Amino acid sequence: MSQTDHIGKGPNRVDGPLKVSGTAHYAGEFNVPNLAYGYVVNSPIAKGKVVQVHADEVLALPGVLAVYSHENVPHLAWFDRSYKDLLAPGGSPFRPLHSPDITFNQQPVALVMAETFELARYAAALLRVDYEQEKHETNLETKRTEGYLPGGGKLGYAPPPPPRGNPEKAWKNADQKIEAEYTHGAQHHNPMELFTSTVEWLGKDKITVYDKTQGVFNVQRYLTGVFGLSKDNCRVVSQFMGGGFGSGLRPQYSVFMATLAALELKRSVRVTLTRQQMFSIGHRPNTLQFVKLATNPDGSLASLQHHALHETSLFEDYTENVVNWSGMQYQCDNVKLGYQLAQLDVYSPQDMRAPGAATGNPGIEIAMDEMAYAAGLDPLEFRFRNYAERDQNVDKPFSSKKLRECYREGAAKFGWDKRPLEPRSMREGHLLTGWGMAGGVWDAMQMPSRASARITADGRLLVLSGAGENGAGTYTIMTQIAAETLGLPLEAVTFELGDTDQPQAPLQGGSWTAASVGTAVKNACDALGEKLLKLAQKQKDSPLKDADYDEVEFVNGQLRLRRDPDRAVVLRDLLQASGVTQVEAESTALPNMLKQNGYSLHSHNAVFAEVQVDEDLGTVRVTRVVNAVAAGRILNRKTARSQVLGGVVWGLSMALMEETIMDHKFGRYVNHNYAEYHIPVNADMPHIDVLFVHEDDDIVNPLGVKGIGEVGMLGVTAAIANAIFHATGKRVRDLPIMLDKLL
Amino acid sequence: MSQLLTSAPHRGGLPAPVPTGPVRLHINGETRTLQLAPWTSLLDALREYAHLTGTKKGCDHGQCGACTVLVNGRRINSCLTLAVMHEDDDITTIEGLGTPDNLSPLQQAFVDHDAFQCGYCTPGQICSAQGLLNEGRAHSEAEIKELMSGNLCRCGAYTGILNAVQEVVAAQGEMVK
Ligand code: FES
Ligand code: FES
């Protein structure tokens, strides 16, 4: 039996002991000597101009080192493209401290540098800035008829597919139909860790940047572009990240500010944003959705139309895929999908966990529930009747799709078959119980990635790739993949990440890290394995003479022949006997387009939720959730389960709590703190069951993984909203469902 | 139509910040004398002056619990208290509970139950759970959930956190018996 089969098991996180003992170092925790501290000042108006920054007053305070604003910022890169990071959408990226123009509330207008954090904060609070205020517009309602089609989108954006069939005619002719509008306000990522950058000054315009980011290479690209540094002089490091959820995909103004100050002061610098400022760095956009569905008498969908309109800033066309999912989720021959943006005086939205899908999913999945009721069908049965065997958007089969199994296994675990169809039929005193369900779909993507592997004579393996660890478990799964590929115990393997000195990895997002970096790690270890085989074959009387690489395997610290495991060499003996100190290999992993082109690549899930609604008070408690996920191979059952648990919390949060409220009079978010921006706490937790449905897929990538960070969140919000309908008979289409909407 | 927004100059210059002085704290069993201004929070004193960065800052306003430490055995939000108020107090931070090679029972239970993802709320969660054990108040699942609700976890690791605390509570219960 092999002790070095690690994939698919559930070992503890390899970085767990560091995280629980406070010894994992996040960006703001590199206490390099002689640090200067920065504090950012933000605009209280949404539109207008800075007239004057009265820097001299605070500069008179002993210990205040500098005040940077558009008035004195040195000459930086001129062209937009220098500011464009890997995920920049169309338009002109925001340039901090570039001009007096104010284009959104909380826009950073100055950076105060001082000897201590407290002094910088004090001076920032006293810094007087004069503004000329102009009329702003932050209300999406005013733009209902002013939506426009975005031009070029950003990485990963796909415009909706062209319409198919004749959806409007089919809708008109159908007997059973629904039409409804769904909305949610802006939401902010709010990872626990504040955005922070520690820039270590190494002399002569050479810096090391410890940044909170989901992509060290993206930050390096941005900083070298903006500040004209060479890559060699701008190393970016992020070994741990206190949550990202998309907020760290693009370089934030904290890293711009810290780098600016370090280069100007020729000194090491730390800039940390406040929780309030975490509401000025991008958000899930306020969105309006319009859905029309109609059924044939047999319960099949006759027409499906889904249109979305969301806000963006004045300077960038932020895009995400909101409606496309609806065209592939169900079988329907008459489909029209639409997607438009509207400009407001707000900051550019930014990808937030399951961007686009998390918005479109409640739209289509609440509508499907409404349609099921209009057609007199059980919502799960309705979905079976409209199961999509092919992705009609692109007219291709799915590489694998075990959604039917998700429905079945999830329903069985939940006890869905005992559900009465009628709303308000499960009551205990003033408590109404309801059961709802929904499903989700997300892309299975792979991005180009590199990794290197090095084994030393003591049998220890070091694997490097500049990926990120924001809680998804990257350290652990990469260690598992490397250890299994070379037949080593987990303890013999170290995986390091988050450094631009390492082989290049993609942004940490989109649920593609396992597939992308995982494949690169596997390839690098295989490349190393081939070198080890050659080394073994050089030995006198090698038991592996003439063996090809695909005829051998690495198991339990041995390199052996598959068909005759007794013909083996012990790795450590081999390394020591051969006299080499180390063997190294580096490799690139690219998606196999030839193999993938004929298929639609997606993960799926089905969610079942139980709620209890207090009829007198309108309060909602989610009591049970079952989330059944089909996402290919699960690399680590423990960390994968945690990701899905977290997804359930996010879905619950979106359903019942989360919303950044804009005061349109001031064009300003008013609940920009952790007390008033509600997210769930431990006492809000339902009992959650996570099921991983078995799914083999050798098309998506050699590992057969699809990623789970996003899909685990989908379906949850709609399942809860649908359960609330089942409990109360009230259909709430405006998220979050707070108690006033149920009274 | 635009409108001018200005404020009056600070008359007679800005009030100068108050100077620093020595503050003696007993942190994780070690006596440390730090030079601190009165406006330095205990949280910033730990992170920026004592270089104990295990204690986290998530809001600086007493809203998230990431900065939870034990002062004389009781859990508090270290961002809501000034360091100078703790002259001679016993302060236990996450670093004082255990080390990577020698984890405390709670720390080990957090690892075993995967009671975190990014790990940023985790030191606060563990200190809070330790305080809760010290208080001897957490018996039922509902009590633990309620008493741990001052600690936000954006990653949503609450189920694991509950299970980890339950395990240690149960083990301690048996030890007491
Ligand atoms: S940092 Fe102290 S409670 Fe949030
Ligand atoms: S583990 Fe990330 S916030 Fe709790």
From TrEMBL, chain A:
Domain of life: Bacteria
Domain Aldehyde oxidase/xanthine dehydrogenase a/b hammerhead: 21-135
Coiled-coil blocks: none
GO terms for MF: iron ion binding; oxidoreductase activity
Signal sequence interval, chain numbering: none
Pfam families reported in the protein's UniProt record: Ald_Xan_dh_C, MoCoBD_1, MoCoBD_2
Family annotation (InterPro entries): Ald_Oxase/Xan_DH_a/b (IPR000674), Ald_Oxase/Xan_DH_a/b_sf (IPR036856), Ald_Oxase/xanthine_DH-like (IPR016208), AldOxase/xan_DH_MoCoBD1 (IPR008274), AldOxase/xan_DH_MoCoBD2 (IPR046867), AldOxase/xan_DH_Mopterin-bd_sf (IPR037165)
Full protein name: Xanthine dehydrogenase, molybdenum binding subunit apoprotein
Organism: Hymenobacter actinosclerus
TrEMBL record, chain B:
Pfam families (alphabetical): Fer2, Fer2_2
Classification of source organism: Bacteria, Pseudomonadati, Bacteroidota, Cytophagia, Cytophagales
Gene Ontology MF annotations: 2 iron, 2 sulfur cluster binding; metal ion binding; oxidoreductase activity, acting on the aldehyde or oxo group of donors
UniProt-recorded name of the protein: Xanthine dehydrogenase YagT iron-sulfur-binding subunit
Disordered: region residues: 1-20
2Fe-2S ferredoxin-type domain ranges (all copies): 21-97
Keywords, ordered alphabetically: 2Fe-2S, Iron, Iron-sulfur, Metal-binding, Oxidoreductase
Highest taxon, organism lineage: Bacteria
